[in-house]
Amino acid sequence: MVSLLLLAGLGSTAAGWAQSPPPPPPPRRVGVWLTNSPSPLYYDPRRIERAVAELAAAGFNTLYPNVWSRGTTFHRSNHAPMEPALAQVDPNLDPICRFADAAHRRGMQVIPWFEYGLMEPATAPVAQQNPQWLLQRRDGSTVMELHGKPMVWLNPAHPGVRRRFIDLVSEIVRRCGLDGIQLDDHFAWPVEFGYDPASRELYRADTGQEPPDDHTDRNWMRWRRHRLTELLRDLRRALPRPTVISLSPGPFRSAYNLWLQDWELWALGALIDDLVVQNYAYSLAGFAKDLNQPALTKARAWGMPVEIGILAGFGGRTPAMATVAEKVRLSFARGHGVIYFYWEGLWGQHAGPEGGPSRQAVFTQLHR
Q1: Is the pLDDT assigned to residue 153 strictly greater than 60?
Q2: 156 or 299: whose pLDDT is higher?
Q3: Mean pLDDT of 198-217
């Protein structure tokens, strides 16, 4: 699947990065995703301080707070509006920098999660004000229904989109002194999109041809994958070194064919430093089977740190603590770290029937 031609183009850049590698990660990452939905965590400084202290005491060493969601940020940004609830509670609260300060005092790393990536609500100001930035299907439509809401996708190949995205990521990393950033399956180019005027013009300039009507044409898919890779490479160059770039993608086959994410190439080309593979299988047998997927084996062979995303609890989906504990043991036995989704599912409001104190004690024991 890896493009040798593109890897050759990355070679000199990757060699330069190899001279100043990112700092070694903790021996084994034990992390958690934190978000405002649904949680009051982001809106109370005392909750933030208490949460970080509890996590440190329970053996966690990495936090992944959501910083970019639903077209808004959890800080003052020059490139996007602030999340409305945060702006109403206290626009100066600055939860991401508070997480960084509380975590760094305890020797932990903070890697904010840019959940929405290149996706925006269809009603977002950036989409309304810059229609030329939006990807289109062949019929000219721009909207995709995701999470029960109409979404649009910004064009990774458009210079204006690239500048905004890189600036959006860079500003919070520099201001809060963060250890890295995390992208996920929304840092993507949906395969049926790419027929907007900007993409057509770029494709004609590169190939002398019109994009084929078949959006699964191999050459057309490859061209779009390379544009997404170029954006990641530009982001890598723009971030201060050393900054960890973490990726939490879907399974490789669907990521590659449906979302044009070539994360094997990104790993081999030194464009990412850390891989978090989500494994939300309900049964232990299914979970163990997914640990054997070829992509995980390959990533380990390349020396890429790999963590397993484990569901701790969310809404009505809170697994029994015995099940969570066995999944953690299985992951550790393969040499993987673990990242839990999400904070409130550990020992918070979605702690399940065992109760928070009991689960907190088990997590602490597991991480020893």
Answers
A1: yes
A2: 156
A3: 98
Three-state SS annotation for the chain:
CCCHHHHHHHHHHHHHHHCCCCCCCCCCCEEEEECCCCCCHHHCHHHHHHHHHHHHHCCCCEEEEECEECCEECCCCCCCCECHHHHHHCCCCCHHHHHHHHHHCCCCEECCECCCCCEEECCCHHHHHCHHHECCCCCCCCCEEECCEEEEEECCCCHHHHHHHHHHHHHHHHHHCCCEEEEECCCCCCCCCCCCHHHHHHHHHHHCCCCCCCCCCHHHHHHHHHHHHHHHHHHHHHCCCCCEEEEECCCHHHHHHHCCCCHHHHHHCCCCCEEEEECCCCCHHHHHHHCCCHHHHHHHHCCCCEEEEEECCECCECCCHHHHHHHHHHHHHCCCEEEEECHHHHHCCCCCCCCHHHHHHHHHHHHC
- pLDDT number for residue 91: 95
Residue of 29, 101, 16 whose CA lies nearest to 276: 29
Q: How far is CA 356 from CA 54, 316, 362, 366, in A?
A: 12, 15, 10, 15
Q: Are 277 and 308 in contact (CB under 8 A)?
A: yes
| Tokens matching residue 163 | 């500048």
Rounded average pLDDT over 241-257: 91
Average pLDDT over residues 187-196: 98
Could you tell me which of 347, 349, 348, 350 has the C-alpha nearest to residue 363? 347
Distance CA(261)–CA(251), nearest Å, equals 10
pLDDT band, very low/low/confident/very high, at 21 (cuts 50, 70, 90): low
Q: Comparing C-alpha atoms, which of 180, 123, 134 is closest to residue 156? A: 134
pLDDT at 57 (0 to 100): 98
Token match 């978000």: residue?
35
- Quote the CA–CA distance of 105 and 148 in Å, as a whole number: 40
Cα distance between residue 14 and residue 197, in whole Å? 33
**Predicted pLDDT of residue 303:** 82
The percent of residues above 70 in pLDDT, for the chain, comes to 93
Average pLDDT over the chain, rounded to an integer: 91
